[in-house]
Design a protein that fits this description.
11 helices, 0% strand, globular, 80% helix, 251 residues, mainly alpha
Length: 251
Amino acid sequence: MSAGEIIAIALAGLAAGMINTVVGSGTLITFPVLLAFGYAPVTANVSNTIGLVPGSVSGAIGYRRELAGQRARVVRFGVVSVLGGATGAVLLLVLPASAFKAVVPVFIAIALVLTVGQPRITRWLAKREIDLGRRGRPLTPLAIYASGVYGGYFGAAQGILLLAILGVALTQDMQRTNALKNVLAGLVNAVAGVYFMIAAHVAWTPAAIIAAASIVGAQVGARYGRRLSPGALRATIVIVGVAAIVRLLTS
């Protein structure tokens, strides 16, 4: 691996760590870089997932203040996230890559619609005294499981999907929701990464570079991302999501 490749992968990992912590879609930076350097799609996806796990942990730590009082949610939604991530990881090694990637732009578009409409949807639910985040409501865990399946399979914009789901289901500040998103996305990446270590070929050098850089990037993202107002955070999600759709449709 040349010095130029090391620098490029490190910069991609740094940017991915920042974006994943604030919004999501960091995979859309690191994954194409690995492809550009000649790694096979599945190997690039596997190595990228493993590399971003430390960044997810770093981002969750950076948002630990906003996680206060959410232990029950972390446990409840974390279990279904882990199950979804394991399912998606298995599917990656069984199904052709085109099978799931074809519907990725649709998933992101739905997430963006939910994100933009979240305040209005939340008000509508509140008027009817509907609490989707309450125990016994199956829709939210099922949606989180589905996002976990997607995250374990490909991962791009998993954070946007989670923010959309949690934003509609939970009546709380967007930054607290983002903190919960970081934990759930990290659990998905972690369980998928463990499975990939056992069952898939991993390019360990780029994975290690991404891991180191994403840790730093996640801390930067946590420091500045929490300063965004709910409106600014929502606008950032939309911008990143639209860019993700364009990139996927033109790649």
